[in-house]
Every structure is written in structure tokens, then in C-alpha cells.
Amino acid sequence: MSLDSLLLSALAPWRSSPIWWVAFSGGLDSTVLLHLLARLADRYELPVIRAIHVHHGLQVAADDWSAHCQLVCDELGVALSVIRVRVGSGASVEQAARIARYQAFGECLGEGELLLTGQHRDDQAETVLFRLLRGAGVRGLAAMPAVRSLGRGSLVRPLLEVSRADLEAYARANGLAWVEDPSNQQLEYSRNFLRRQVLPLLQQRWPRTVSSLARTAGHMAEAQQLLDELAQQDLAAAQGIGDCQWSNLPNLALAPLRGLTSARQRNALRYWLAGLTLAPDENHWAGWECLRDARPDATPRWRLAGGELQRGGDRIWWLPDAWLEPVGGPVSWSGPDTSLALPGNGTLRIEGELPSGRLQVRYRQGGETMLVPTRGRRDLKRLLSEAGVPTFVRARLPLLYCDEELVAVANLPQLSRGGVALNWCAPEF
């Protein structure tokens, strides 16, 4: 199959997309991709083709590359957007540049638009080998997906089945010029070492190394899909509604998880945590076992990137770092308004008639008591425990005071006086 036909077939599901953006670095891969698309657009009714070049500012020749990209786009009649980014500091310049680049791409994409990148089969094989040497699991060895969401649109890699040799042959046959990043020759970068030293040596012994590694990525992607489907089934039983769902904190019932094998527990949790934090490495799962096996009255914590898991009743809860920050002091409530914005802690709404007196919203400090109808004065800590409010929610739970007397606890109608209902919309972090 010709490159034209292969590309047209790969992009067939997105022919109705409003714009196809090409991530155009000026290198071989993206130059061939842009040329192919521009040529196809002359013969077929395709979405608008545009190019986007990210200027990292890391190389002396970066300005020249931008100028080269503009020249190529002018010749092809394709509009080019050049975006300058600031690359963050860190142990890996490559990784920091990649993060900055894809953040810029994501911000450019409109609803339903595509970003097309030129990664090919050799890149896929290199990624598999790189991740294998780092001890990646099934998800990591699936390497680069052909399609994934990005911003308000999607990222598509339509050339993953094409070899670099085929791309270079096309470029030479069509007289295309491209730029070479000199950093690609620096062997101190691990990927360059694999590309320049390791893969050629492997191919001397096993000529089909690249295609075999790329095929392995496909097998791993299929295996990961099955693992994800199993995780969805296992999580379905654990995602029932429990108490305090108004806290807006992701949570799971613990009992269904305990009934799974250890391997299925880890698989389900990896899937659930994927949108919340970085995947725990193999040496970090002891934190889960401590959390799972702790006594009911214990308060174990499993610390992860950007937050932690805690136990609350018979459920586990994800608490982002922002939730763990202390809330502010008292907030006065005056006037006829029945709603109140709490700094850093969502909003409150009163249903019923506002009590007459000096109203203030406060948070627990310890030692609070409340006069409960038919029960007399009771310790607030015990009342919250009876209501099943997890310990980590209590510090943020708004308390309404009228003339120094606690008259209502947010979202607990059984702990209110005078027909006042205090509804709290907790923050979403």
C-alpha cells in the first residue's frame, strides 16, 4: 500500500474533524507527513490542514528551524503557527521539553480537532526497548498509542506502521528538505544511545528487530485493554454510593476490593488512580496493604504523588493535596443572602429562615458541643462519628454559629436547629 493510501485509510474516522493540525518540527517525519497531507488535500475533500511548530529555545539554531518551517509551509500553502514555550528545569531536559510541547499542543486544539504527529515504527520499537529496560509493565510496553485524547481534541499517530526507511525514501523521491537536530547525535541521551548503538547491533543479529518490537507494542496494547476491562468490572462493585458523597472526594468500598486476589486489587487500583495520581511503582504497594489491612479504628494513610488515600468507615478515599491544606478562619454571614462563598472551601446555602442574631461560619477546633433536640447537649466529635463523617472531612465541614451557639452542621440535617438546613457544596480540586 502506498503512503498516500495508508495515511488516508488511517485518518478515515476523522474526515469530519474541523481541523487537522500537524505537529511540524521540520524534521524528516513531520516533513513527510505534512507533504503527504498537502498532496492529499489537492485530490480529496479533507479538513483544513494547519501546521504548528513549537519553539523550545534550547538550541542555537531554533530560530533557523522556525524559519525553515515557515518556508516549507509557504511552499505547500499551509498556515503555520509558531508557539514559544519555556522548558522547565528537571533531571531530564527531554522530558521537560516534551511536557511543554504537548501542553502547547493541547491548548491549541479546539473541540473535535486533531493533532497529527509523525512518529513511525522505528520510534515505536525504540520506545518499547527503552521502557523494557526501565522495567515497565504492560501499559508501558504498549508504548505509543495510535490515538489518545489531547485537550479538547485527539492526538493521532497515523504513521506508526511505517518504517523510517520508507519515510526517507519518500522524502528523497519528492526532493524534500528537512532539518536535523544536532542533539540527536548526543549519546549521553538514553534514547539516542539506543537508536544509534543498540538497535543497529540487534538488527545485525535479528534483522526483524524493529518490526518485532513494534508488534510487541500491539500485543501489549491488547493485553492492557483486557486488563482495563477487568478493572472496570472489579470496580463496578466498589463504586456504589456511600455516606458523605457530597464531599466530592473519589472513593471506593473496601469490602469488594478485599474479595479480589492481590493482583486484581492492584490492577483495579491502577486503573482507578490513573486520573488522580502517578502510578505507584512495585516497591510502593506495601502502602496499599497497610491501608487495606489496618484495624477499623486506625487512621492509615497511603501517600502518593499529589495526594493520599485514607480509610473512612468501610471505604477508601482519595484526598488531593489541596484538600489537606488547612481552611481559613471564621466567615461572617450577614444580610438577606442565603448563599455564601467560603474561601478555598466551596459554597454554602441556607434553606429555611436565617436565624436572627450574629451569624458566623466556623470550622472545628476541638471541644465543640451542640444542643440536640430530645438529647440535650452533646459532644460534636461524637455526633460526627455517629453520622459516619470521616475524620478527614470534619476539619472542612462548615459549622453555623448564631450568637456563639452552634446551630447547624453542614449537610447533616439531623444536626440542625430551628428548621435550618445548611447545604455545603464542597470544593472540587
Question: What is shown here, in short?
Answer:
The protein contains 15 helices and 19 strands. With 429 residues, the chain is α+β, with helices and mostly antiparallel strands. The chain folds into three domains: 3-224, HUPs (Rossmann fold, 3-Layer(aba) Sandwich), CATH 3.40.50.620; 242-324, Uridine Diphospho-n-acetylenolpyruvylglucosamine Reductase, domain 3 (2-Layer Sandwich), CATH 3.30.465; 331-425, no CATH class.
Description:
The chain is of the alpha+beta class and 429 residues long. The protein has three domains: 3-224, HUPs (Rossmann fold), CATH 3.40.50.620; 242-324, Uridine Diphospho-n-acetylenolpyruvylglucosamine Reductase, domain 3, CATH 3.30.465; 331-425, no CATH class. 39% of the residues lie in helices and 20% in strands. The protein has helices at residues 3-10, 28-43, 62-76, 93-108, 121-133, 138-141, 164-173, 190-205, 209-236, 254-258, 262-273, 286-293, 321-324, 380-386, 391-394; strands at 19-23, 48-55, 79-84, 114-116, 147-150, 153-156, 251-253, 301-304, 307-312, 315-320, 331-333, 339-341, 347-351, 359-362, 369-372, 376-379, 399-402, 405-409, 421-425. Strands 3-2-1-4-6-5 form a six-stranded mixed sheet, with helices on both faces. A four-stranded antiparallel sheet has the order 7-10-9-8. A four-stranded antiparallel sheet has the order 11-14-17-18, with no helix packed on it. Strand 5 and strand 6 (153-156) form a beta hairpin. The radius of gyration is 28 Å and the shape is elongated. 30% of the residues are buried. The mean pLDDT is 91. It catalyses: cytidine(34) in tRNA(Ile2) + L-lysine + ATP = lysidine(34) in tRNA(Ile2) + AMP + diphosphate + H(+). This is tRNA(Ile)-lysidine synthase.
